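Feature request disguised as a bug: please show the residue count (163) next to Pyridoxamine 5'-phosphate oxidase family protein in the output. Example input:
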Amino acid sequence: MSTTHHSHEEAVETVRKLIKGIDMAMFTTISAEGLVSRPMKTQEVEFDGDLWFLTKKDTSKFGEILYDPRVNVVYSDKFYVSIRGTAEIVEDVSKKKEFWNAGYEAFLKTGYDDPDVILIKVHAEAAEYWKSGNLAEKAMYMFKRITNQDTDKLNLNQTVELE
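Example output, currently without the count:
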């Protein structure tokens, strides 16, 4: 794995391109018992260094974020993208209204102005991504790893710092 050194804007643009169009993510929090992951829908807003999710206070993730705001969000499509960050609970009604749609009304069985409805804002700190690659790329990567050769030039695994 190599760390790619970009400006903040370049790093954000890299992550934006990697996760664009992927609706669902695995959202991982830390509970008193350990790590907990669950699928969550990412808000349809262009990535600018922050990710947004909508949920309710009566969920375990709400308490887990209060317990420890460190989270990880994973996307999978043509790339595997793991985003490490810090979560913040946002209760701004106008912001909730901005993200609200009929699907949430049906799923959460309430409206955006319900005080139990919250937004989770994840400030991304770093993103690591892996290119799915074709079979030849994967074979070359594994061969180089097994024979202790440098795999950085293959660019199958990179990390970008977002802070």
